[in-house]
Design brief:
three-stranded antiparallel beta sheet, 9 strands, 28% strand, elongated, four-stranded antiparallel beta sheet
């Protein structure tokens, strides 16, 4: 048994679809694990997300039906994702945690407003 098989067994036992390295970004599925033959030291277990041809994304598959592998949030972060709809930016936009314009900073949600403002802290409203 080699490391690749150990990783594959772990992914399957824990119901993951593949690996994801958000630093690159890169993702692969269990049925074609590590096709890059690269260093997987920074890869994390991930889940497959199918992407519609109309979705806006920054990958080479833009404009086609394709998939991404994403890292699911930790249980602690999952709580913040569940509560995200209660957060509203000063511009009036409600938090969408799956949008690249929103991020959790460890204490509150922030909404991206572009240069020169950057990320603006949102307020929790019920």
């Amino acid at each position: 048994m080699n490391v690749k098989q150990i990783v594959l067994d772990y992914l399957k036992e824990n119901h993951f679809d593949g690996l994801c390295n958000p630093d690159v970004p890169c993702g692969c599925l269990c049925d074609d694990l590590v096709p890059c033959e690269g260093n997987i030291a920074n890869c994390e277990p991930g889940r497959r997300e199918d992407v519609d041809e109309h979705a806006v994304c920054d990958c080479d598959g833009q404009g086609t039906k394709h998939w991404h592998v994403y890292i699911p949030p930790s249980p602690e972060l999952e709580q913040h994702f569940t509560d995200a709809a209660n957060w509203i930016c000063e511009c009036g936009e409600r938090c969408n945690p799956m949008s690249a314009d929103w991020r959790w900073n460890g204490e509150q949600w922030e909404h991206y407003h572009g240069y020169p403002l950057g990320h603006v802290a949102a307020n929790r409203k019920i």
